[in-house]
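Q: My labmate handed me this sequence with no annotations at all. I'd like to see what the chain might look like in three dimensions before we decide whether it's worth expressing. Could you predict it?
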Amino acid sequence: MISNLASYSLPQLKQLSARVANEIVKQESAVKAATLRKLEKLAREHGLTLNEVLGDGATAARREAPVAKVTRAPKPALPPKYRHPSKSDLAWSGRGRKPQWVDAWLANGGALDALAIAAEKFAKKQQRQASLPGAVAAASTPAAVPDAAPAAPVNAVE
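A: Here is what I predict for the chain of 158 residues:
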């Protein structure tokens, strides 16, 4: 048995690795062939063929064992690269097919750069609104504070 692999050079180790891989393949196939011969002999002793033994049982076992499907985690939504200047709810990441509103914009003589600029302006506006102190104050309404008295009901019909 090989005792000290550190004494081998890299090409020698690669050659040894290839020889080991070949020997593994040879021994695996020899074991499979020997096992197959033993199973065929055992089936013949009972008056059966190997196909008769494995045929129904193998398909039944395959039917019973459900195959696990690989599910991938959903990809996060990409930030919009293009946004409609007047309708801020219309946005497109720039990937995939162009939405109809982008095609209509371009057909009416609009430039794609204008939509990109609109998206940049909208993003800056959202950042400004998020950093305003009023945005934090709106989160601490009396309903959010447990010690505050409930608001008096407002009658719409008087």
